[in-house]
Amino acid sequence: MNNPTRNHLKEAYKNPNLYYVLITCTKPSDSGEMQVEMSYNGEADLVSYLLENAISQIEHAELEYEAQ
Question: Rounded CA gap, 32 and 1, in Å?
Answer without folding.
Answer: 17
